[in-house]
Amino acid sequence: MKKVNILTALVAVIALSAFTIKASIDWKISDDFSIKFTSEDPTGVFTKMDGDVSFDPDDLQSSRFDVKVDVSSINTGRGMQNKHAVSDKWFDADNYPTIDFTSKSFAKTATGYEVTGTLQIHGVAKEFTMPFTFENEVFSSSFTINRLDFKVGTSKGMSAKVPEELSIDITVPVTRK
Fold first, then answer.
1. In this predicted model, what pLDDT tens digit does every residue of 118-129 receive, in sequence order?
2. Are 123 and 95 in contact (CB under 8 A)?
């Protein structure tokens, strides 16, 4: 009986070793990241971001992004503009403290990759596809976003002075965990 169990275990080990279990590579977000937004006015950056990043160019199906940007970390270079940005008339940081992105799928493109997932800003969640490159342990992405799609700055007054479309440039250096 022991010989049968040992033989069965040996066959199972050999059979399982024929299959390799692939797992994405986990990455730690460097403090040197950059999230810039530009328009005619305002321009600025977000200075706090955290999240889980797993990415392997050879295993896109196992890759995932789950990232949060702290809304109160906005810096336009103007103190009063920063106060307005986090107020209930714009991002409403008290009720919606983070901008969240959670990936659903990844694809290879002619110029790099794209990730599709749920982007949530100001309590509004939408499917969003973001192009990006990954070279020398740095993720880079540039895209535009319409702030009104996420109900940011919809109140009368100053919102008319801010363009609906904002250019976003993201650079995220990472290191292996």
1. 999 999 999 999
2. yes
Dihedral class, residue 92 (left if φ above 0, else alpha if ψ from -120 to 50, else beta): left
Tokens standing for residue 173: 């250096």
Choose among 117, 115, 120, 116: nearest CA to 152: 120
Are 66 and 117 in contact, with CB atoms under 8 Å apart? no
Going from the N-terminus, what domains does the chain have, and what CATH number goes with each?
23-176 (2.40.128.110)
Question: Apex CA 145: angle with CA 57 and CA 87, to 5°?
Answer: 120
Give per-residue pLDDT as tens, 67-115. 999 999 999 999 999 999 999 989 999 999 999 999 999 999 999 999 9
The two tokens of residue 143 are 């895209």
pTM: 0.84
C-beta separation of 171 from 138 below 8 A: yes
pLDDT of residue 14: 45
Contact between 148 and 122 under an 8 Å Cβ cutoff? The reply is no
The CB-side HSE value for 84 (13 A sphere, CA atoms) comes to: 14
Q: Name the burial class of residue 172, with classes exposed (0-12), middle (13-18) and buried (19+) by CB atoms within 10 angstroms of its CB.
A: buried
The kind and range of the H/E element at 80 are helix 79-86
Residue 149's nearest CA partner among 106, 109, 108, 99 is: 99
